[in-house]
Amino acid sequence: MQNIKELAKNFKGNVLCIGVSDLSFLNQLSHMKSISVFTIQRNPSRSIFSRKRKKGLREDGRKVNMKKLRKAFKKKSIDYLVCDISEIYDYFKYFLYDSVVINRGKTYLYGESKYIDPNVLARRFHRYHAKTKVETEGDSFLIIVDNKDSRGSWLLSRWYVIVDSFHNLGDMISAALIS
Fold first, then answer.
1. I want to staple 62 with a disulfide (CB 3.0 to 4.6 A). Which of 21, 26, 49, 155 is the partner?
2. Rounded CA gap, 162 and 93, in Å?
3. Residue range 137-170, pLDDT digits in tens
4. Are 145 and 125 in contact (CB under 8 A)?
5. In which region does residue 111 sit, left (phi positive, over 0), alpha (psi from -120 to 50) or beta (all else)?
6. How many Å apart are CA 88 and CA 93, to the nearest integer?
7. Interval 48-53 mean pLDDT
8. Phi, psi of 120, deg, nearest 5
9. Residue 126 parent element (H or E)
10. What is the structure's pLDDT at 177?
11. Closest alpha carbon to 165 in 92, 84, 88, 68
12. CATH architecture for residues 2-150
């Protein structure tokens, strides 16, 4: 998380934070005048869509479904996307394509290796012609995805969901046989 705080000093434009629970990071973003912050907290009781304006932080109370993230934000409308992998793990097959569609800048994904292998994730972003960089420290990782030249189609994204489902099924079967 410390690397993201250092990288956030250069943010300008719209920033979408999904599942970020570090209050010092969110305060750092909210005090910067050159950006507007959208946050989505995935909570079992409610999802909050809030937007920082010049007057301060305002909560609309609009619920954002992770499966319909693309409908909540316009195409290529977000400059930076910061996301915790542990919060979106259940929606990960939809999140890959949606992050490429709504983001025109960089995506920062962080988390622990127990949820997903960072190299596999980087390869999945290469399908959409995005440039990736993986940084690991022990059990945690940070993946920086540059979506400037990325592109994807709806049909190919559905094909990738099917291929990834079979890949995950094979991983589950092999894990069950080994244990």
1. 49
2. 9
3. 888 899 999 988 888 788 888 898 899 889 888 8
4. yes
5. left
6. 9
7. 40
8. -65, -40
9. helix 118-126
10. 93
11. 92
12. 3-Layer(aba) Sandwich (3.40)
- Per the document, the length of the chain is 179
Please give the residue that has the higher pLDDT: either 38 or 140: 140
Spans of all domains in the chain: 2-150
Per-residue pLDDT tens over the stretch 96-115: 888 888 888 999 999 888 87
Residue carrying the six token digits 């569609």: 101
The residue whose two tokens read 């420290």 is 137
Tell me the C-alpha distance between 112 and 157, whole Å. Answer: 25
Amino acid letter, residue 115:
Y
Tokens of 53: 């304006």
Burial environment of residue 102 by CB neighbours within 10 A (0 to 12, 13 to 18, 19 or more): buried
Given this model, what pLDDT does residue 61 score?
43
Q: What would the two tokens of residue 95 be?
A: 């999140």
The region of weakest confidence among 34-38, 159-163, 169-173 is 34-38
Q: Which tokens hold the place of 169?
A: 């099924």
CA–CA separation, 159 and 168 (whole Å): 14
